[in-house]
Design goal:
- The complex is a heterotrimer of chains A (about 425), B (about 190) and C (about 575).
- Chain A is mainly alpha-helical.
- Chain A is built from 21 helices and 2 strands.
- Among the domains of chain A are: about 200 residues, no CATH class; about 100 residues, no CATH class.
- The termini of chain A are far apart.
- In chain A, about 45% of the residues are buried.
- Chain B has about 190 residues and is of the alpha+beta class.
- Chain B folds into 2 domains: about 40 residues; about 150 residues, no CATH class.
- In chain B, about 30% of the residues lie in helices and about 15% in strands.
- Chain B has 4 helices and 6 strands.
- Chain B has a two-stranded antiparallel ribbon with strand order 1-6. A two-stranded antiparallel ribbon of chain B has the order 2-5. A two-stranded antiparallel sheet of chain B has the order 3-4.
- In chain B, a hairpin with a 2-residue loop joins strand 3 and strand 4.
- The longest helix of chain B is centred in the N-terminal third of the chain and has 36 residues.
- Chain B is elongated, with a radius of gyration of 27 Å.
- With about 575 residues, chain C is an alpha+beta fold.
- In chain C, the strands form 8 sheets. In chain C, strands 1-28-29-30-31 form a 5-stranded mixed β-sheet, with no helix packed on it.
- In chain C, helix 1 runs antiparallel to helix 3.
- Chain C is elongated, with a radius of gyration of 41 Å.
- Classes of the chains: A mainly alpha (about 425), B alpha+beta (about 190), C alpha+beta (about 575).
- The interface between A and B is large, with 73 and 68 residues.
């Protein structure tokens, strides 16, 4: 290889000049040692290798596919349990939580609303894959691949049945939480879901005290209530519910014909199996009242949400700083002196009007987002009412399309399934 | 009756298929937009030393009991001072490594004589709690060769870094995992 | 062994494992709680024992034993801190691991029970009881809805409160009409021209005729007053303290007098005072946008106050080198403040635009070396805005948006203290010397346009150090002991009026009458045709140009501020 020495020489001169210019800035010029002292190198432990992020995606995909196979084809609770144990160990205790599809909701919302946000390619995939899978195989992610779900599922020892009406009402919270998390994420305020995640501190065996306490509460709850986080809180579940409702393939209790024995309903700790129903004669009251109520509910949601958004904006860092700075200029420093934030801002020398303008813009964004949030909450509530007043005709027990978590418990308790299993065992023994 | 039933089922099927189509389209659009904006490399948290004010919250806000943020020494811009403002506390009795002279609350800085009049300062990372006292001294009066940096062998890379959300100077940034450190004279890994 | 026995053995083992793990977890939890609460608390930096010892050590620095004791204690505390930290960490791990183990063992033990599910007695009714269940769900959903609405309402009430900063945000500014005010040096356009309003044609300080109020000034300077609504602003200096003052334009009382806080030691900056023949610290006239007042000082500080007298920001342009001291006034352009800093030192001269909210530089353009004292004006000629500056040797025009130089004309000589005026389609400038050259330039063009753009020029053997005034037809030039009227189109002299007096202040043209204060403490009024109408005695030197606003004339003399109006 031919080296252009002349160019190299010129380049090295420039490099020396540049370095000289850099050194000239220091108060204490770095010494030129006479002894043969060699400059130690600054240690830089590398970040987690890139290839591992792709491995994670591969494993996630594989586990979801396996879980779908186990819940739809193989119909084996044991395989699903093993898968979830693996997920708990790998995604939970080995990978220690981040980034998971639940938290990625916020990254996706922020990346879609503000183009400058750093969202890695792998995080987008982690967000999308379980959602896409739920359109074809139901909530296979929840059943076998989610470490949060696995932890709760494995802890369930003595379940208490929650009445259906309470279960349905509480599960509304997940939608509200989703709306709130998106609002806080797109305004660049905070990632609520990550901040209040109850299980990550256990995966890491460390965390702030408050996080450990909420985590502990959820762990204790999961001993008696089937997957409380998944059913009532999980914002990703709120996304998965409508998608799995229209899923191409669905979990069914019986392999063949339902004998209406009710055993599966008892076996499901999540209240996700619907009873057979004989609808009464429909006596739908014709009238505009429900529509008027619905529309006025939406309107109330928009208006109240607007102000609720303004309330939420106080939890944004920038808005909080604007309030502090304004108070500082109006009343001077408080009794506790000035905060680090105020000090840093004053040192920056920026005109406070600029900060106030930014804060005002953020507050307006919050108000707009709050209106949408109010609309969203009322809309979901309306759907819930509609759903509750529906009178379907159903002759067999079947899992609820949205609520079934693909855990496979009902397979084990179904007498028809047992018979089939015995038959298969018998065949194997004969062979 | 039979005919009626199949009709009803097929209507339900149709609704489901339409719903699935719509959801797929929405998911595809959102995912495509997010993918188009996504970065190829993974991201890690790091402190921009130019913005850091050494407020001390790195030591207290991290999810780890002993923070993932530690003081690191960028030897290439160190002045090897005898009177190091990162090592000695104000009003020190003597320029030696006696506990009464040291600024570091955990004694994590090792001072070693090199040659007249230069001394080498090394951080014992096991002992460092990331309080930033030495960084503050070095930045205010010295060359600023002591810097606070997230150590990626310790960092859990939370989706939302708790120190970042508590940082008064917004000094925490997300940078590509391939060059995960920011030193004062620029990111050397970029060279 | 058959399957059932094996199962039973497993179950027993798991049960015992669960109990054992739970016991270990419990012991670990109790130990952790106890350990956490005893011994050293919190971080190592707040050890009171060590602090006390250190204080003692500072008191007796030569005490060897004390020093040894301190070092031992210090070492012990550090070791204790890390030991505690390690034990807490490990203890926590043990607690969590064994808790999980216990729960998992219990879980699998139950899974191995191998019970065959049975239909419970009394639950044979498999069909959901139609109406009742639905009504339950409906009622629950409705109640949930009400609860949610209530919650939203509570947060909405909380959120409806103002946070305080909203009114102060920059986006909320309204267009402020400055046309009826006298907000900058020589009025809104820097022209000295007043076209409407009823202003007194004569007054008498001795009898008090047409004198609305008079107030004594403690701060000195050559700068002129500016007026916005009821507020009159002045700059001045008391010794080396720089001041911005606000008076009530109606009553004459002082509203506030704020000292400027600057980030450098003013003691180190030497400015030639008024008594020594210089321009002093505060010769530039302030400018107001109706919300803030901006004042430039000879020390190279531009400072911004709000109308209540609170300093918002200050910009320091660096070392000043100006023979007599800076006197060019800042001018307002849209959201920016434009300052011309012509300094004596090499490479120091510049013109800059600063954001009026933040004081940050929007643009900055170098100017030729050499000091000058004129104020830039901003004109609109053929629909295009230009900043016209006077300075050493030349007139330079800039684009007010970008600061780019547009054109220059070399037609000036001497130490330029005059500003340009615009009227009748031409820019008129005067140079300073024993012979005054008056030059009219047609604006527009690019680069040096000396040869092509001069419309006319004339000379008079007399010195003018102030700025002329024009209404677009006549140009009035106030030279020492001579006032002339020129045709602005041709430069032809229309009339001359000899007056034995010196003029530092610039003339104003008020509804066709020329008002001009003098160094002998007089104010002359001259008619449009060049006849002297009245001479009013102010009792002391008048170096500042008067302000005309709302039917009141404000004249700053050496130590007083006088407000004149028809009573």
């Amino acid at each position: 290889m031919k080296i252009n020495y002349k160019r190299l020489f010129i380049a090295s001169i420039f490099l020396c000049l540049a370095l000289g210019a850099v050194f000239a800035e220091y108060k204490f010029p770095p010494p030129e040692f006479e002894s043969n002292y060699s400059l130690p190198v600054m240690q830089r432990p590398p970040a987690r290798a890139e290839i591992l992020a792709y491995l994670d995606i591969f494993i996630l995909l594989a586990v979801i596919l396996l879980s779908a196979w186990a819940s739809l084809k193989k119909r084996s609770r044991n395989i699903i349990m093993l898968l979830s144990l693996f997920s708990l160990l790998y995604f939970g205790f080995y990978k220690e939580g981040c980034i998971c599809p639940i938290g990625a909701v916020q990254d996706a919302a922020l990346a879609l609303s503000s183009p400058g946000y750093y969202m890695p390619f792998t995080a987008v995939l982690i967000f999308i894959i379980p959602l896409a899978a739920s359109l074809f195989a139901g909530r296979a992610y929840c059943g076998g691949a989610c470490p949060h779900g696995a932890l709760q599922d494995l802890l369930l020892i003595k379940e208490l049945k929650i009445p259906r009406w309470l279960d349905r009402s509480l599960s509304l919270f997940a939608y509200i939480y989703l709306g709130l998390a998106v609002l806080f994420a797109v305004t660049g305020s905070t990632f609520l879901i990550c901040k209040y995640d109850p299980f990550v501190p256990f995966f890491r065996l460390t965390g702030p005290f408050s996080m450990l306490v909420t985590g502990g509460i959820f762990l204790v709850l999961s001993l008696f209530i089937g997957r409380p986080y998944c059913r009532f809180i999980c914002p990703y579940g709120a996304l998965l519910k409508p998608l799995s409702l229209v899923s191409r393939n669905k979990v069914t209790v019986t392999p063949d014909k339902c004998i209406v024995c009710r055993l599966c309903e008892d076996s499901c700790p999540f209240g996700a199996i619907n009873k057979p129903e004989k609808p009464e004669k429909r006596n739908i009251k014709k009238g505009a009242l429900p529509a008027i109520l619905f529309i006025s509910g939406l309107l109330a949601g928009v208006i109240l949400g607007n102000y609720t958004g303004a309330f939420c904006s106080a939890y944004n860092k920038e808005v909080g700083l604007a309030v502090e700075i304004h108070a500082y200029y109006e009343e001077g420093p408080g009794p506790g002196g000035i905060s680090d934030e105020v000090k840093v801002y004053l040192d920056s020398g920026e005109s406070p009007e600029l900060l106030f303008t930014r804060a005002e813009a953020l507050k307006n964004k919050f108000k707009k987002g709050g209106s949408l949030l109010g609309l969203w909450i009322m809309f979901v509530l309306g759907l819930q009412l509609l759903y509750a007043s529906r009178k379907p005709k159903r002759e067999i027990y079947e899992p609820d399309g949205a609520r079934c978590l693909s855990c496979g418990r009902c397979f084990m308790d179904c007498p028809v399934e047992r018979q089939e299993q015995l038959k298969r065992d018998g065949q194997r023994n004969v062979k | 009756m039979e005919e009626n039933k199949t009709k009803k089922i097929s209507r339900l099927e149709f609704l489901k298929n339409t719903g699935r189509g719509i959801f797929l389209a929405v998911l595809g659009a959102a995912g495509g937009a997010a993918l188009a904006r996504s970065k190829k490399s993974s991201a890690v948290w790091q402190i921009d030393p130019a913005k850091c004010t050494q407020c001390g919250r790195c030591a207290t806000e991290c999810v780890l009991r002993i923070s993932a943020v530690k003081c690191v020494h960028n030897f290439s811009i160190c002045g090897y001072c005898n009177l190091c403002f990162g090592f000695f506390q104000a009003g020190q009795r003597d320029l030696n490594s006696g506990g009464e002279n040291q600024l570091c609350p955990t004694g994590a800085i090792k001072r070693k004589f090199v040659e007249e009049p230069y001394y080498e300062y090394t951080i014992k990372e096991k002992l460092c709690v990331g309080c930033g006292k030495c960084v503050s001294g070095c930045t205010a009066f010295g060359n600023g060769s002591l810097q606070l940096q997230v150590r990626h062998d310790r960092c859990k890379n939370c989706n939302e870094c708790l120190i970042a959300s508590a940082c008064p100077a917004n000094a925490f940034v997300r940078i590509p995992a391939a060059s995960p450190y920011i030193t004062k004279e620029g990111n050397e890994n970029k060279l | 062994m058959d399957r059932e026995t094996l199962n039973n053995i497993f179950r027993l083992a798991l049960k015992q494992a669960a109990v054992a793990s739970a016991a270990i977890a419990l012991i670990a939890a109790l130990f952790l709680a106890g350990y956490y609460l005893t011994g050293q608390q919190g971080n190592i930096k707040d050890s009171p024992a060590l602090e006390a010892l250190k204080a003692k050590l500072d008191k007796y620095p030569d005490h060897e034993n004390l020093l040894r004791e301190f070092r031992e204690k210090d070492l012990k505390e550090r070791a204790a801190f890390f030991r505690k930290s390690v034990i807490l960490e490990q203890g926590k791990n043990i607690f969590i691991v064994f808790l999980l183990l216990a729960l998992l063992a219990l879980r699998f033990e139950r899974a191995l029970t191998g019970r065959i599910p049975e239909v419970k007695k009394g639950s044979e009714t498999v069909y959901r009881a139609g109406g009742a269940g639905i009504n339950n769900s409906l009622a629950a959903a409705a109640v949930t809805g009400l609860v949610l609405l209530g919650l939203l309402g509570v947060f909405a009430v909380l959120g409806a409160r103002k946070m305080g900063f909203e009114a102060a945000a920059a986006g909320n500014e309204k267009e402020i009409d400055l046309s009826s005010s006298w907000n900058s040096f020589r009025g809104p356009a820097g022209s000295g021209l007043v076209k409407e309003g009823n202003y007194a044609g004569e007054w008498d300080l001795k009898t008090g005729k047409n004198i609305l109020w008079k107030t004594a000034l403690s701060a000195r300077s050559y700068s002129s007053p500016v007026v916005y609504k009821d507020n009159l602003f002045l700059t001045g200096s008391e010794g080396k303290v720089l001041k911005v003052l606000c008076y009530d334009a109606v009553k004459g009382s002082c509203k506030w007098a704020s000292s400027v806080m600057v980030p450098v030691k003013l003691e180190d900056i030497e400015i030639m005072s008024e008594d020594a023949g210089g321009a002093g610290y505060a010769a530039p006239t302030p400018v107001t946008d109706g919300e803030h007042v901006f004042a430039l000082f000879a020390t190279d500080h531009l400072v911004c106050f709000d109308l209540k007298g609170k300093q918002l920001w200050v910009k320091y342009f660096g070392k000043t080198e100006n023979t007599y001291g800076l006197s060019s006034s800042p001018v307002l352009w849209k959201k920016n403040i434009i300052v011309q800093l012509d300094l004596g030192g090499e490479g120091l001269s510049k013109i800059a635009a600063l954001d009026k909210k933040s004081g940050k530089t929007v643009w900055e353009t170098k100017r030729p070396d050499g000091a000058s004292w004129g104020t830039p004006i901003i004109i609109e000629h053929n629909g295009k805005n230009e900043i016209i500056t006077t300075g050493p040797e030349q007139v330079i025009a800039y684009d007010p948006e970008t600061g780019k130089e547009l054109w220059r004309v070399k037609c000036l000589a001497g130490e330029i203290s005059t500003s340009a005026v615009y009227g009748g389609g031409v820019v008129v400038v005067i140079d300073v010397g024993s012979v005054s050259t008056v030059t009219a330039i047609t604006p527009g063009g690019f680069g040096e346009v000396t040869k092509t753009k001069i419309a006319w020029s004339m000379q008079e053997e007399n010195q003018a150090i102030n700025t002329p005034v024009t209404d677009g037809k006549i140009l009035v030039v106030a030279m020492n002991s001579l006032i002339t009227g020129q045709d602005i189109k041709t430069g032809k002299t229309l009339w001359k009026l000899a007056l034995e007096d010196d003029f530092w202040a610039s003339p104003s043209l008020v509804n066709g009458t020329v008002y001009i204060p003098s160094q002998q403490g007089k104010v002359y009024t001259v008619s449009y045709g060049g006849k002297l109408i009245k001479t009013m005695d102010m009792g002391e030197k008048c170096s500042a140009s008067p302000a005309f606003a709302g039917g009141r004339i404000f004249i700053r003399s050496e130590k007083n501020l006088v407000c004149i109006g028809n009573k």
